[in-house]
Write a structure and sequence with these properties.
The chain has three domains: 128 residues, Fumarase/aspartase (N-terminal domain) (Fumarase C, Chain B, domain 1, Orthogonal Bundle); 203 residues, Up-down Bundle (Fumarase C, Chain A, domain 2); 65 residues, Ribonucleotide Reductase Protein R1, domain 1. With 479 residues, the protein is mostly helical. The mean pLDDT is 95. The chain has a two-stranded antiparallel ribbon with strand order 1-2. Strands 3-4 form a two-stranded antiparallel sheet. Strands 5-6 form a two-stranded parallel ribbon. The chain contains 18 helices and eight strands.
């Protein structure tokens, strides 16, 4: 009799055993009993290990197998099977077998065993052994040889971040360059500069955008600097940093293998105990991500302010329309991409707080909060990278300056008054500015009416073009 509609079919299972006893595991799973226990114990978020962390972990397992074979510790037939299984995962296969929740037992043991079991079962399968037997290839004895979660997981976290740092920097530099192009394009667009959201002194839209470019470039520099420290790996530290069951020859070979496979300048940790105890280098990298998020978020907010309108706001720039802005107001277009970027930046700052508090919670020889540190740092890097690319292609490259609107607001403001201070003093200039606001008269007309300066001299001083350059407007320094 067929199962009633909606009733799930029974899943075929195999029985595996570990030090805690027997447990059923899905028969077709490449993961094993320790992963299955983690799945049962931690049904928390539905979030799984990021692909970059899986790739980094499997790269380490492959490099370790190669190192152990070269040292004569691992049988070549078994080691090559592990390498082939790792290559399959690196090519994109079996990713659905990494099933442990982000929020798991401390230190990432469940993630490490998930990788060990998947590689062991796939390697054994290629050698003719059924999944779950572990007599030919064992997750701990062979795949995890010379390793501990306590050195593989922090090393994988660092490696996962480094593998994408190039893409992150490329996205940041490209966005900065896009603002640079707009800076040149808008070099002659005069407008009001604002501080405290109030009229300040004249500026060009190009100068404003050049600031955005410089902020992004400097933030990218900070990430590049912080990334340098991530190349120091504690592989070979094993449990607490002493190197038990590893050794110097293993350390040299496993890191050389990883460097060759990734093209990254990786190196053994100067002090294995530091890198095993502390997540400080990742805290620094996360802090650099936060800095980029702060700069990026401020720029996104500025774009929203400068484009607000189109009739009742500043409307000094126009952003490309990417989607309808309202379900009730026809024709309304919102700054959708900058709004998305702001939300990403808030999330990145939240990720950084999690990284910092979790890093501080480490105790003695190990920080057991590494899984949440890894997920947040990698997630922050990913969404920053993606959002900067979208902001560049969907918004910045298509920004247009509303030249007439910029000039209209400049002419209506008191922004030019500051240039008078070197000639008539701060107090007199303040009185003129207040009168201009109160009466609606121009600064020029008020100064002439008071007989403070003649028209020719005044026109030279009130030249808004001169005010956007260093020096005293109307004087030799401003020429």
């Amino acid at each position: 009799m067929s199962p009633r509609c909606g009733t799930p079919l029974p899943v075929a299972q195999r029985i595996e055993r570990d030090p805690l006893g027997d447990l059923p595991v899905p028969a077709d799973a490449y993961y094993g009993i320790q992963t299955q226990r983690a799945v049962q114990n931690f049904p928390i978020s539905g979030l799984r290990a990021p692909d970059d962390l899986v790739v980094a972990t499997v790269l380490i397992k492959k490099a370790a197998a190669e190192a152990n074979m070269s040292l004569g510790r691992l049988d070549g037939r078994i080691g090559q099977a592990i390498v082939r299984a790792a290559d399959e995962v690196l090519a994109g296969h079996l990713r659905d077998q990494f099933v442990v929740d982000v929020y798991q037992a401390g230190a990432g043991t469940s993630h490490n065993m998930n990788a060990n079991e998947v590689l062991a079962n796939r390697a054994a399968e290629t050698l003719g052994e059924p999944r779950g037997a572990y007599t030919v290839v064992h997750p701990n004895d062979h795949v995890n040889m010379g390793q501990s979660t306590n050195d593989t997981f922090p090393a994988a976290t660092r490696l996962a971040l480094l593998l994408r740092t190039g893409d992150l920097l490329k996205a940041a530099r490209a966005l900065a360059a896009s603002f640079g192009i707009k800076s040149e394009q808008f070099a002659g667009v005069l407008k009001v500069g604002r501080t405290h959201l109030q009229d300040a002194v004249p500026i060009t839209l190009g100068q404003e955008f050049s600031g955005y470019q410089a902020c992004l470039d400097r933030a990218a520099d900070a990430i590049e600097t912080a990334a340098g420290d991530l190349g120091e790996l504690n592989l070979g530290a094993t449990a607490v940093g002493t190197g038990l069951n590893a050794g110097e020859a293993y350390v040299e070979r496993v890191i050389a293998n990883l460097s060759r496979a990734t093209g990254l300048p990786l190196r053994p940790a100067t002090n294995l105990f530091r890198v095993t105890q502390s997540m400080g280098d990742i805290v620094a990298y996360s802090g650099a991500l936060r800095r980029l998020a702060v700069e990026l978020g401020k720029i996104a907010s500025d774009l929203r302010l400068l484009s607000m309108g189109p009739r009742a706001g500043l409307s000094e720039i126009t952003l490309p329309a990417v989607q309808p802005g309202s379900s009730i107001m026809p024709g309304k277009v919102n700054p959708s991409v900058p709004e998305m970027v702001n939300q990403v930046c808030f999330q990145v700052m939240g990720c950084d707080l999690t990284v910092a508090t979790a890093a501080e919670a480490g105790q003695l020889e190990l920080n057991v909060m590494m899984p949440v540190i890894a997920w947040n740092a990698i997630h922050a890097s990913t969404i920053l990278r993606q959002s900067m690319t979208v902001l560049r292609t969907q918004t910045v490259e298509g920004i247009e300056a509303n030249v007439e609107r910029c000039r209209e607001l400049l002419d209506r403001s008191t922004a030019t008054a500051t240039a008078l201070s070197p000639y008539i003093g701060y107090a007199a200039t303040a009185e003129i500015a207040k009168e201009a606001v109160r009466t609606g008269k121009s600064i020029r007309d008020i100064v002439l009416a008071r007989g403070l300066l003649n028209a020719e001299r005044l026109d030279a001083i009130l030249s808004v073009e001169a005010m956007t350059r260093p020096g005293i407007a109307g004087g030799p320094e401003g020429r």
